[in-house]
Amino acid sequence: MERLAIIGGTGLEQMEGVVGGGGHTPETPYGPPSSPLIEVEWGGAALIFLSRHGEDHSIPPHGINYRANIWALQQLGVSSIVAVAAVGGIGEAMVPGQVAIPDQLIDYTWGREHTFFDGPEVEHIDFSWPYCATLRSQLLQAASVAGVSVVDGGTYGATQGPRLESAAEIRRMERDGCDLVGMTGMPEAALARELGLCYASCAVSANWAAGKSDHEITMDEISENLQSGMVDVQSVLRQLAQDYFQGSSKNGLPKK
Ligand code: HPA
């Protein structure tokens, strides 16, 4: 049975439709995940929700235990992960509030625990197309049915954070071909691939990236744009759950 998990980012720390209690925090060889894994019921599908920055948003992008998060989801039988992410818009389509389903990425992060293959077991996964084609097309189809306009494709540049970028860094990323910039897309995507999970990103533009507008980027601006964008994201995710993950096992979380 296909089972869907949603990793919520900034602006999507909580979900409606929570089933049961406060969730389950499993042990992993890498330590605990960012937050308890919560079971959520949407449109006849039982989804697992994980808050990437912690329930109280206290974990910065470079401090997230990406390995524990992905490992814990896999242990629960999750087969597909939609990673919700706030991003800065670089390409002109990425107007604040706009949702995109990227199809490529470039990793500019450093110093993060980024692999399960640390030795003695070593495997070099194929990462030519970092996002799962099946889940991407399901997301695009769900968006179309839900009447939400999304940008199909684009290159996500993953930066280290927590600071935002300089205008010159964004100009360089633009020359590299990046359309959007965020801080959490890597190593999350690669870790999911290493464990054989289908992973796609649903990115919401929170602001024009550094130097792309005539004003400083403020947290108020980011929160405001995310509020409207996350309404669209949730409509897409509901449709996705209903159309492709209905009947996935309910109450599948171990009691703990
Ligand atoms: N840069 C990086 N990450 C982000 C941004 C940004 O401008 N906005 C939201 N997340």
Write the layout of secondary structure elements.
Layout: E1 4-8, E2 38-42, E3 45-51, H1 66-75, E4 80-89, E5 99-101, E6 104-107, H2 133-146, E7 150-152, E8 155-158, H3 167-176, E9 180-182, H4 188-194, E10 198-208, H5 219-244
Helix pairs in contact: 2-5
Bound molecules: hypoxanthine.
Outline:
The protein is built from five helices and ten strands.
Q: How would you sum up this structure, described in words?
A:
This protein is an alpha/beta fold and 256 residues long. It has one domain (4-115, 124-248): Nucleoside phosphorylase domain (Rossmann fold, 3-Layer(aba) Sandwich), CATH 3.40.50.1580. Helices cover 26% and strands 21% of the residues. It is built from five helices and ten strands, in the order E-E-E-H-E-E-E-H-E-E-H-E-H-E-H. The protein has helices at 66-75, 133-146, 167-176, 188-194, 219-244, and strands at residues 4-8, 38-42, 45-51, 80-89, 99-101, 104-107, 150-152, 155-158, 180-182, 198-208. Strands 1, 2, 3, 4, 5, 6, 7, 8, 9 and 10 form a ten-stranded mixed β-sheet that branches. Helix 2 (133-146) packs across helix 5. The radius of gyration is 17 Å and the shape is globular. The mean pLDDT is 93. Hypoxanthine (HPA) binds at residues 86-88, 159, 164-165, 181-183, 206-207, 209, 222.
